[in-house]
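Task card 7
Instruction: Convert sequence to structure tokens.
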Amino acid sequence: MSTLTLKGPRWVTVRQHRRALWVLPAVVAASLAGVIALRWFAVHGADLYPASPDGPLRSAMDLAGTGILLLPLLVGAFVAGPMVARELESGTYRLALTQSSTPRAWLASKISVAAVAAVACSAALVGVYRLGWAPLDGTWQFSWADRGPYESTGTVAVAYCLLGVAVGALVGQLVRRTLVAMAVTGLVTGLVMALLGAVRWSFLPVRTLTGPPAGGPPFVGDGLMMDSGLITASGGRLPEWACFERSHNLSVCPDDMNVTGWYVEYHPASHYWPTQSIETAVVIVLAALALWAAFAVLRARHP
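Output:
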């Protein structure tokens, strides 16, 4: 990141963390080069890897998805520890306050530099991931709804990085111990990601398909199946194994059960971007609340 157009606290923040900031474009460039090489190998590497030429690409993209999932935790930990808590712990922030800089400007410089870097890096990595994911889309563990590809191909990864910045700024002030602040921020950010990941498929109503009793549940294509089972003549629903418990045969249902067909509840692929948008909005609101709390703590301690 260039410091030529920066002044005051932001210039100081960039100078303090310039090595870490230079690592980010290097990671993006290395990732892009790696994905391009692996895509080439997936197309032309059958002679060297005849069993599965896209195997190295699949392995790399699996690791990349995990890396993007961890990125918000790393961003938050860096903001909480080296950027905020370490200065409070060592007392070096007082030097900034003697250079005609207010406490608000000191914290705002940390947050703005971290936010710009996090957004730029995460958005670039999402683009690189989509480049590698494209030939694998729809295959095992690389569906649009799978954990990893879902977060790594849309806007939620960027939003979670912003949440990490805001939580880091808050926790860094509250804890004021570098390592502890890093651990707490990673834990809080991870818990929010896990919670929203558990409820994201409740944001939109599911669609329902029905079919005849023979042949099993209806096929939903590339949709995300949420539930399936049996329909009775009265309109009631039974678990999909209900007939097997009685007849010990998946294809035979006793007449007294009055089974008339199957149902499947699912999310179609068209729910991907609406779900991304809703989750992104929720995360941005949480980040804004954490940011407001961070400045509230600052005002309370430096009136």
